[in-house]
């Protein structure tokens, strides 16, 4: 069992004194010391199998040798010179790679930033500049980030908006399909049609922004029919498609980009999280004409396109390709989903298992009939996993978030799931007290 000492407590107390609580979503007292592949060690020397991958950022595994080499080599040359004023090779090399691997057989341009949120802002700015239209359509339960722009298009919960004053105007929300909790595709499409007939003329809408698979909503995977119709409405009315692939990108779903699963070539694709294997970087890749409709320097960040991050990103993409990580995500992901489905036969609290590749959600409910979310049990399972040596978090209050590095082996997956099942059993047997999860905030 994981043991912590005064050392860990002191570090956490200091954090609590110094850091804004609102920047954190604490789960358990894990102070990371080092990490390699799918394993993480805390400052006490406890070892964990990582089912979180730093929130789907570490797709190629922690501290992959090839990424380390690229970073070291670039650091030795120069750490930064802003590509806004000068040129550097890692910047161009990565842009070339992104243009090549993103969906869409058309001329593209790339713009870098430092966070998914900032790149979502960029996508909105590009869409508005190009179309000359103001309105943006987004979805309930979507998460696009925390800058004012990305928050404005996030339908994640009114708490996030409290006290924020006026957000970006002319943003409209419609429902997103949720086959488990009964939000039907046709109902969602009807809301879109109603929006454009009753509220906002289609010719005033610049773009629809969507996560191809909603992540923070608890892994919601629409059926193909939904996207066929959304795309049709958009194409008929000159509305741009902005795919926010910050979460789904770089192999997470078993495809390089989830747009490929739905056969859509978005006009703009937003990238972040795993793009640079943990180094700070994000990007938008869009049709040339859209990405050139704005004025310089409307989307400029001094340290964006940092050469060390760019070198890490190119190396990371090469790792995904060379080590066949898309295939591994599908193989290990399917195995994990089957194991969770098998657990359903023994554990009543598992209401649903869904996912694609290694983007898996396990819905924990009070009752399979009512599908009422069991927030307390979910938090306890994650807490027990930490005690037993697995890093596990949750979305949407009750959906276990199973998103390990794409390098995870079958053996590691098996070991991790043995611990997850043992933790579920412990929680069912009342071995985790309510007090243990007082501190768990989760999402
Ligand atoms: C789909 C999606 N878009 C945007 C963001 C925001 O990215 P960042 O936290 O890097 O600003 C996230 C972050 O979790 C995300 O999941």
From TrEMBL:
InterPro entries: Aminotrans_3, Aminotrans_3_PPA_site, Class-III_PLP-dep_AT, PyrdxlP-dep_Trfase, PyrdxlP-dep_Trfase_major, PyrdxlP-dep_Trfase_small. SUPFAM superfamilies: PLP-dependent transferases. Its cofactor is pyridoxal 5'-phosphate. Transmembrane segments: none annotated. The keyword Transferase applies. Keywords: Aminotransferase, Pyridoxal phosphate, Transferase. GO terms for molecular function: identical protein binding; pyridoxal phosphate binding; transaminase activity. It comes from the Bacteria. Belongs to the class-III pyridoxal-phosphate-dependent aminotransferase family. PANTHER family: AMINOTRANSFERASE CLASS III (PTHR11986), LEUCINE_METHIONINE RACEMASE (PTHR11986:SF58). This is Aminotransferase class III-fold pyridoxal phosphate-dependent enzyme. It comes from Emergencia timonensis.
């Amino acid at each position: 069992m994981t043991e912590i000492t005064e050392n860990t407590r002191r570090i956490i107390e200091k954090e609590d004194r110094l850091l804004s609580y609102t920047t954190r979503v604490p789960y358990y007292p894990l102070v990371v010391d080092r990490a390699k592949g799918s394993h993480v060690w805390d400052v006490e020397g406890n070892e964990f199998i990582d089912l979180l991958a730093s929130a789907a950022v570490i797709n190629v595994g922690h501290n992959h040798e090839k990424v380390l080499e690229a970073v070291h080599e670039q650091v030795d040359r120069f750490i930064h010179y802003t590509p806004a004023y000068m040129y550097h090779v890692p910047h161009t090399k990565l842009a070339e790679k992104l243009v090549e691997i993103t969906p869409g057989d058309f001329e593209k341009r790339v713009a870098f930033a430092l966070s998914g949120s900032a790149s979502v802002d960029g996508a909105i700015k590009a869409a508005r500049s190009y179309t000359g239209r103001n309105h943006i359509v987004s979805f309930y339960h979507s998460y696009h980030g925390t800058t004012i722009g990305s928050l404005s298009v996030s339908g994640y919960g009114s708490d996030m908006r409290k006290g924020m004053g006026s957000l970006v105007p002319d943003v409209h929300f419609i429902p997103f399909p949720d086959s488990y909790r009964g939000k039907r595709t046709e109902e969602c499409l009807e809301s879109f049609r109603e929006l454009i007939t009753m509220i906002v003329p289609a010719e005033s809408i610049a773009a629809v922004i969507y996560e191809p698979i909603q992540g923070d909503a608890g892994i919601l995977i629409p059926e193909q029919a939904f996207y066929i119709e959304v795309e049709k409405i958009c194409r008929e009315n000159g509305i741009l498609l902005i795919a926010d692939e910050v979460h789904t990108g770089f192999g997470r779903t078993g495809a390089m980009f989830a747009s490929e699963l739905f056969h859509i070539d978005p006009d703009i694709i937003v990238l972040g999280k795993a793009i640079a294997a943990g180094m700070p970087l994000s990007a938008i890749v869009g049709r040339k004409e859209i990405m050139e409709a704005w004025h310089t320097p409307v989307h400029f960040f001094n340290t964006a396109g940092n050469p060390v991050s760019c070198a890490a990103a190119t190396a990371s993409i090469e790792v995904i390709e060379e080590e066949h990580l898309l295939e591994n995500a599908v193989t290990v992901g399917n195995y994990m989903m089957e194991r969770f489905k098998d657990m359903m036969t023994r554990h009543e609290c598992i209401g649903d298992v869904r996912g694609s590749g290694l983007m898996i959600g396990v819905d924990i409910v009070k009752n399979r009939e009512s599908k009422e979310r069991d927030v307390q049990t979910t938090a306890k399972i994650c807490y027990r996993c930490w005690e037993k040596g697995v890093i596990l978090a949750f979305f949407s209050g009750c959906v276990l978030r199973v998103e390990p590095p794409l390098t995870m082996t079958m053996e590691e997956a098996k070991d991790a799931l043995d611990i997850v099942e043992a933790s579920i059993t412990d929680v069912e047997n009342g071995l985790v007290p309510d007090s243990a999860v007082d501190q768990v905030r989760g999402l």
